Amino acid sequence: MTRKKIAAGNWKMNLTADQGQSLVGAIVQADRPSDVLTILGVPHPYLQAAVQQASANRGVQIAAQNMHEAISGAYTGEVSVDMLLSLGVRHVILGHSERREYQKESNELLKTKVDLALEKGLIPIFCCGESLDIRKSGEHVTYVSSQLQASLFHLSAEDFGKIVIAYEPIWAIGTGETASPEQAQEMHAAIRNLIKEKYGSDTAESCSILYGGSVKPANAKEIFGQSDVDGGLVGGASLKAEDFLSIIRSF
Ligand code: PEP
User: Fold this and answer.
1) Residue stretches of the chain with pLDDT short of 50
2) Pocket lining for ligand 1, CB < 6 angstroms
3) This prediction's pTM
4) CA spacing 20 to 30 A to 57: which of 40, 198, 227, 249?
């Protein structure tokens, strides 16, 4: 995947089917910059309808918010990679901090999910990011580095090149507190440097690294203006068409 500007929404467990349909419709039909890829991370029950709504518009793609690490089997309530692919889904958010916290998803489990997604042709949007305690201790770069090492750095350069990374400091998710543009740039540059050390400049320069954590219309332009920030993974502000469109137009 070449380095793209990406505005990705993560609806989490919000909206009814009708509300979701209206939101996808509003985003798909609106004027958006042609060089920005818009990705909507919708709840599993809405994936099929969302893929159909977005199919007429090349600039909008649909992501799942999770997938199971097994190909198929006795896993009640879970969703498999083949199910997602059979609906036309092309991206999957993996390693969101809420899943790491509430479902206890480990770096090792995420490695398995990343491998399966790539093997089958689904593009992972891989989330990483530190807690407030780690930020305060000054260990944030080391911590995020260990997440990348454990879940991604076993990949070949070719496979790594397909991944989108989302840096999401946990202390900024859903809290209204945003990393400053300087804090975001510092971490994004550090991530790109780690990729460069492991895979070389071409891979590092072509990797899209998104920032997530209370992105809203009022701060998107400044954050997206940082040289190593290629867009955002947006929770709360992706639930209102007007706000998310404003973010999409902030590059
Ligand atoms: C997220 O869910 O990934 C996120 C960044 O949420 P919010 O934008 O609401 O902080």
Assistant:
1) none
2) 10, 12, 168, 173-174, 212-215, 233-237
3) 0.97
4) 227
